[in-house]
Amino acid sequence: MGVITLDDDGKIHKIGQLNEETESTEFYNGILVPGFVNTHCHIELSHLKGAFETGTGMTGFIKQITELRERAERDNRVLSLEKEMKLLYDSGVSAMADISNCGESFSSKSLSPIYTRTFIEVFGTEPEQSTDIMLRASHLKEVAHELGIDAAPTPHSCYTMSTKLLRDSCNAALSEGWLSYHNQESWEEEEMIINGRGPLSKRYLERGLSTPPVKGVPALIYFLEILKSTGNLNNQKILLVHNTFTNQESVIRATEEIKSLFWAICPLSNLFIHNALPPIELLRRHNAAITIGTDSLSSNTTLSITEEIKAIHKFFPKIPLREILEWSSYNGARFLGIEDRFGSFEPGKSPGVVLIENIDWERERLGERSFSRRLV
User: Fold this and answer.
1) Which of 88, 212, 262, 357 has the most CB atoms around its CB within 10 Å?
2) Rounded mean pLDDT of 278-300?
3) Bridge partner residues of 238 (DSSP)
4) Which residues of 237-265 are buried (b: 16+ CB within 10 A; e: fewer)?
């Protein structure tokens, strides 16, 4: 029987087999795993739980965000995100890569036991707005830093940004060492970048907004061109999020050109918006470093890593649980550069200890009734 010995501060002292039971020995029926690393969340959107229609595609989702984002008063928005931060921690999340468009979540993050790196997301379709947008993002970064939060600007996605803003925000992110980017989340994005058509293009034109250049290639190839044009691409950690409609050409190019590349999947969000899933087997064939995120409660019904794992089991039943658990913790810690503290059970680390109960032992996977709870 395996045993983990911790000191009073939750730091791992040793790992081994149980040879002698003591008064402090505790037994559990389930799987003990290191604290989860949620690599994609929008905690500031927690007040939107249950407000969105499903299956609307990206165009419909953006329309709902525009209309409903500030449906609650600020105090209620903050209360909602504080509640969800606690639920995240109690369910086992020890670290998180979180997207922010404002500073409403900063105080809660600074007080939470969850380690958070905040990606201050920018977007804007008009080139002349880029300077002002980046100044606002820089101001938010300083506010976060004053509260002890690691934070820096990051681009949203190519379809919501002028080429100038995309390049400026990539430069800002790369100079800090981390970049998180919504990649090929929708077929509408691909249609817009490849052919200049589709629902997204139509909506932009109806609103009098500029559209990104028509490239005739997948959106990720366009993004890679921007990254290389900055002249600032070395060993920075880059996270491509969603990847729902990525393809082999995109995956091969990205893995060839980015040294420290990670691929975040958010299955429940992708099913919520598009009723589609990323090509996980394609990513595995190319040895992609996969991580798991929950996205937000505007496109999900829960911020639960265990529920995301269940979705992976359901649609990709051949992937071993051991591998998925590595995505849920260690790979995320590597992306955030905190693997010396989080992501795995090793002496000297303090990743947190999480119990997953109600395991389907026969098939070595989580069952419908499986849930996670923090022990340490």
Assistant:
1) 88
2) 98
3) 179, 261
4) bbbbbbbbbbeeebbebbbeebebbbbbb
Q: What total number of domains does the chain contain?
A: 1
| Domain hosting residue 304, numbered range | 35-354
Tell me the pTM.
0.97
Distance CA 5, CA 25 (A): 9
Q: What is the biggest distance separating any 2 CA atoms in the chain, rounded to whole angstroms?
A: 72
Distance from the Cα of residue 248 to its chain's centroid = 22
Tell whether 274 is covered by a domain.
yes
Cα distance from N-terminal residue to C-terminal residue, the chain: 19
pLDDT of residue 23: 53
Contact 80/46 with Cβ under 8 angstroms? yes
CATH number of the domain enclosing 227: 3.20.20.140
Q: Fill in the DSSP letter of residue 19.
A: -
Band of residue 181 on the pLDDT scale cut at 50, 70, 90: very high
Q: What is the 3-state secondary structure (H, E, C) of 74-91?
A: HHHHHHHHHHHHHHHHHC
Average pLDDT over residues 46-51: 97
Name residues whose C-beta falls within 8 Å of residue 355's C-beta, 6 or more positions apart in sequence.
28, 30, 31, 32, 33, 372, 373, 374, 375
Q: How far apart are CA 53 and CA 211, in angstroms?
A: 26
